[in-house]
Amino acid sequence: MIKSLKQFFLITGQLSEFAGRYFREVFFPPYEFKEFLKQCFYIGNKSFALVGTTGLIMGIVLTLQTRPTLIEFGAVSWMPSMVGIAIVREIGPVLTALICAGKIGSGIGAELASMKVTEQIDAMEVSGTNPFNYLVITRVTATTIMVPTLVVVADIISLSGSALVEYLKGGVTFQLYFSNVFEYLEFGDLLPSVIKSFFFGFAIGIVGCYKGYTSTKGTEGVGRTANEAVVISSMLVFILDFIAVLVSDIFYEL
Amino acid sequence: MDYKIDYSEPPVIEIENLHKAFSLNKVLRGFNLKLWQGENLAVMGKSGSGKSVLIKCIIGLVQIDQGKLRVLNQDVTALDRKELDQLRALIGFQFQSSALYDSMTVRENLEFPLRRHKNKIKNEAGLNAMITEALEAVGLLHAMDYIPSELSGGMKKRIALARTLIMQPKIILYDEPTSGLDPVTAKEISLLITEVQQRFHTASIIITHDLACARIASDRMIILHEGVNYAESTYDKLAEMEDTIVKAFFV
Question: What three-state secondary structure class fits B78?
Answer without folding.
Answer: helix
